[in-house]
Structure formats: C-alpha cells, structure tokens
Design a protein that fits this description.
binds manganese (II) ion, 6-stranded mixed sheet, alpha+beta, binds glycine
Length: 413
C-alpha cells in the first residue's frame, strides 16, 4: 500500500454510516482569450491520490462496509498530445494512486446515479464533497457545481463538507511530508542567499524576484508557494505588497516573503535585509526587537499552546518594549497580523483556527513583524516550526537572520 491508499483507508475509518465521497482535481480558470492561469490541483484530491492533472474525479463509496474506489479521467487524445502533450493514461493514474478502477470521465454522472439508487433506502446515507468557497465572487468549483446538481437531481440527498475530516488528517505531518517541507525550505534558502548577494541600490524589486525564481528553477523547483513579496523601503510596511516593481534605494531595508514548494508542500519564509548590505543603527535596533519576538514564539510554541496565545505573547512583549524605542504603546499601529498559521500543502494550511491547541506533528510559521510607516521601516522575519513532544524545531534555522551574518554574506557582493 502506498501513502495515498493508506490515507484513503484512514479517511474512511471516520465514516461509520454509509457514505459517498466525491473529490475533483479541478481545472485552471481562463486568464484571457485562449490562455489559462497555471493549474493548481485541489490539495485534498492530491493528498488522497498523488495525481495532479486537471479534470479528474475520485469517487469512494462505503455501503454495508464494502468500500469501492474509482477514478474518472479524460481519455487520451492524439491531437491534444501533439499540441500540448499527452494526458495521463489510465495505467499511470492507477500506478500513482493505487486506485484500481479507472474510468472515462464521461461515466461519472452514471456512476453517481448508480450509488444513489443503491443507497436510496438508507436514511443515514451522506455525500461528502470539498465545498470550499473562499469568497462570494469566486467562480464555483467543480465540487460546488456537483453539489448543486446533486441537490437538483436528488433533492433528498444529504450533502456534507469533507473539510473537517481532511483537516483532521492534514494538520499532522508525517515523515514524508516533513521531508517535502524541508526540501522546499532548502531550495528557498538558496534563493534568499542569492538575493542577499545580488542586492544593491538602484535595482528594481522585480530583479530580486527574478533572482529568487531563477534560483528555485536552477534547483528543480518551478512552483512558488504563493505570490512572492519583494518590498523595499516604505513598501515593506504594506503587509502583502506584491507589485514588486519599484527601485530599491540606498539606505532602505528590503523585505522578502516567499517560498518554493516540493511535491506541492510549501515553504513560507520572510527575511529583511539592508539594500546596501549594512543596517543603520535604527534599522538594527528595530530588527533586534522583531528577532526577540521570534525567539519568544519559538520558545513557547509547544503542545497545548494555541496560535492565539503565541500572538498574545508577541503583543505583550511589543507593548512593553516599543515605548523604550520612541514608539507608541499602541502595538496595533505597527503590528496588525497574526504571528502564526499552519503550513503544508497550502501556505495557509487547512483549518487555521487560532484557538486550536498545538499538537506534535503540526507545522506552523513564526512570523512577527513591525511596520513603522513614518520611518519607512518594515521588518518581518518568518521561520517554519515543527511542533514535537519536547518543543518546537525550527525547520528553517539554516537561513541566516542575525544582522552580523547578513552583513557578512552581503559583503561578498
Ligand atoms: N506569505 C504569507 C504569509 O506569511 O502568511
Ligand atoms: Mn506565513
Ligand atoms: Mn510568509
């Protein structure tokens, strides 16, 4: 049994009653005319199958303790193969996912209909779909379209969200997943060091983004975990600035927040360094405060503590510290985001409820910042932590962040 079979087996243990699970790999939205955005596979579909192609569906039903799994994929198309490359064959899909029964996508509706007829006399029967919708404007996903069709065609059907069951599994990372996250971090480290070595006044922020992307690709990674943030000067005080198109000036700080992926597992790292390679005394002073806040989080991120509590520790520390540096006691003037979120196949990984207590096997970020617009100083330092039974392990400890280490590396320009 490979990891995907094992995950499906574990998922199914949650369902005591008869159930049907339908998951879609998704498809890329169009960008313009005949150009699509890059495709990003549905993370829950990928987690359970290892497949990452568009327009696939996974059907699992459990009826009277008989479990049947089937995949539905688009058939091989000769013309398409010549124009853009071949679709995945049934054999390949079977081999990767270990789902034995692979069918043509056009048979999906018929298969659902058969299950619905079969389960008709069972009042406890439920259908589970990934009913994620981030905002009301978002175009309906194949799962939402399917849920609507099910409601129309089978008005008595009980439809449920699969999300809580997926969260229960994905929140805990196994050895394989930790290796993937560490690989993503290692590739990200090379990119950040190359950016530090490249930085100089007069460069455009997009050059730094290019250096990072090239470093990732040079190391076999062609996926960013999220839109890279390259912000110099005042722009670093905008939390998710990502225009990355302004000139980096002498005397300014440069903030990058970025990550590569490995097998779609994300790194999420922020570093802040001086454009010209040397911190001013004031920049160093503020930088040390953020670094201390990071130490507080790392020391306290342990089993039984919540992300909310970690954030409270940062706010309390800032409240006591900031007035000593000529800043207001009102922390919200300079710090207005949470200090942590879960990390995995998604950068803001599944079920980020801030009150949940940490447990061993969870991976979270540690990302305090200070954003002082009046001084043009924006600083965020972000590492990725694994929670273990004996405290937090910093998975990104090899990415330099002490001011002296940064200055020493940047001198090599
Ligand atoms: N890169 C987004 C974040 O740090 O949460
Ligand atoms: Mn983050
Ligand atoms: Mn980040």
């Amino acid at each position: 049994m490979n990891i995907y079979s094992k995950r499906r087996e574990k998922l199914l243990k949650n369902f005591k009653d008869n159930a049907l699970i339908i998951l879609f790999s998704g498809n890329a939205p169009m960008r313009s005319e005949d150009e699509a955005y890059p495709f990003c596979v549905n993370r829950n579909f990928y987690y359970l199958t290892g497949l990452e192609k568009e327009n696939m569906a996974l059907l699992i039903y459990k009826i009277d303790d008989v479990i049947r799994e089937s995949l539905y994929i688009l058939p091989f198309d000769d013309t398409l193969a010549r124009w853009v490359g071949g679709r995945m064959s049934a054999e390949e899909a079977r081999e990767i996912s270990e789902v034995a029964n692979v069918n043509d996508y056009s048979e999906l509706d018929g298969a659902i209909n058969s299950v619905m007829n079969f389960a008709r006399s069972d009042c406890s029967f439920r259908i589970y779909l990934d009913l994620w919708k981030y905002n009301p404007e978002q175009a309906p996903s194949p799962a939402l379209v399917c849920a609507r069709k099910l409601q129309q065609d089978y008005p008595a059907a009980t439809i449920k969200d699969l999300y809580p069951y997926m969260a229960k599994m994905r929140l805990y990372k196994d050895e394989y997943e930790l290796t993937c996250i560490s690989q993503a971090i290692a590739k990200t480290r090379i990119g950040i060091e190359n950016m530090m070595k490249t930085s100089k006044p007069g460069l455009n922020e997009m050059v730094m983004e290019g250096v990072f992307d090239f470093s990732l690709m040079r190391n076999g990674c062609n996926e960013n975990a999220f839109k890279t943030i390259c912000a110099s000067g005042e722009r670093a005080t905008i939390l998710h600035y990502s225009d990355n198109d302004q000139i980096m000036n002498d005397g300014e700080l440069f903030l990058c927040d970025l990550g590569g992926t490995f097998k779609h597992y994300c790194a999420d790292i922020s570093r802040t360094f001086p454009v010209n390679g040397v911190f001013s005394p004031r920049q160093r002073e503020i930088y040390e405060i953020v670094l201390n806040a990071q130490r507080i989080v790392e020391e306290n991120a342990k089993v039984g503590v919540s992300l909310k509590e970690l954030n409270r520790m940062v706010v309390d520390y800032y409240k006591a510290e900031l007035p000593k540096h000529g800043l207001l006691e009102d922390v919200s003037e300079y710090y207005f985001h949470g200090v942590s979120h879960h990390l995995g196949l998604d950068v803001h990984d599944i079920d980020g409820s801030k009150g949940r207590k940490l447990e061993a096997g969870m991976v979270i970020t540690n990302e305090p910042g200070l954003y002082i617009a009046s001084e043009g100083i924006g600083i965020r330092i972000e590492d990725d932590l694994l929670i273990t039974g004996t405290g937090a392990v910093n998975l990104s400890k090899d990415i330099i962040k002490e001011p002296d280490d940064i200055e020493a590396l940047m001198k090599q320009n």
